[in-house]
Amino acid sequence: MSRCRCANYIAFTDAALAGPDEEDRQAAVRNWKRAIEVAVELDVDLVNTEFTGHKDKPYKCEQMFIKSMDELMPIFERESIKVDIQAHPFDFIERNDEAVDLIRGLNKDWINLFYSVPHTFFYDDGKGDIASMFDYAGDKLTHINIADTYNHRASEDLRYIVNPPGANVTVHQHLDIGQGEINWDMLFSKLREMKFDGIATIAVFAWFERADESSRIMLDRVKRELMQSVSS
To answer: If 123 and its partner were Cys, which of 2, 91, 96, 158 is the partner (CB 3.0–4.6 Å)?
Structure first.
């Protein structure tokens, strides 16, 4: 990292963008067109979003996603708006490498990867090998979202309460650094090795009653880790 800078972006997602229903997909595209208009009005040049869709219908949802992007990419280009996309738990793509492959397949230098750290154990089926996933993403990694989480694949013990048992839901956390099982030393070391110069945001949702304290702790840690080379 050579400097600290603010980013001007908005986050927008419509779950139907890659959904299996065509009428819903068309409505999502209309919503996206309006979101782009708002971004232009706000002088925003970056939108971050998710793949959306349903993990139980990956092939159909990928088709719908590509169809939606074919409609939206000319508008993004016309308005000079970049897009960062994350694979979110239960999206039609949950794994990091598959997300990177699809993003590269879109073949636009302004469409890149948003890596959400609290989704790490979904990204590689519980291994948590962040260094390998960052290497695979390479220069497509332009945005990281920072929070801790537990590895839902770490053991056969009941780690989450799901009612009813076996329900088709996706459970994960966004905790303070150090409260979960992410290897933070590896993550920050890898970002420094890569000379990461993208956007780093904090996304802790766990502690409403201590939100201010949590935000200060997280911001201080991220600054210390990612601004180490500023004075050098």
So the answer is: 96
Give per-residue pLDDT as tens, 91-135. 999 999 999 999 999 999 999 999 999 999 999 999 999 999 999
User: What is the amino acid identity at position 11?
Assistant: A
* Residue 4 pLDDT class (50, 70, 90 cuts): very low
Packed helices 96-106 and 130-137: angle between N→C axes, nearest 10 degrees: 10
β-strand partners of 113 = 85, 141
pTM, two decimals, is: 0.90
Beta-carbon neighbour count of residue 142 at 10 Å?
20
Sign of CA dihedral 170, 87, 174, 129: positive
Where do we find the tokens 């409609």? 71
Q: What are phi and psi of 75, to 5 degrees?
A: -75, -45
Please report, for the chain, the start and end positions of each structural domain, with discontinuous segments joined by +: 10-226
pLDDT digits (tens, 9 = 90+) for 146-158: 999 988 877 655 5
Which tops the pLDDT comparison, 4 or 99?
A: 99
Neighbouring-strand partners of residue 200? 144
What pLDDT does 230 receive? Answer: 42
Count Cβ atoms below 10 Å from residue 192 Cβ, excluding itself.
14
User: Two tokens at 99?
Assistant: 């997300």
CB atoms within 10 A of CB 202: 18
Tell me how far apart the alpha carbons of residues 9 and 30 are, in angstroms, rounded to a whole number: 20
CATH of 10-226, one of 3.30.460.10, 3.40.50.1360, 3.20.20.150, 3.30.70.890: 3.20.20.150
**CA-closest candidate to residue 134, choices 117, 152, 148:** 117
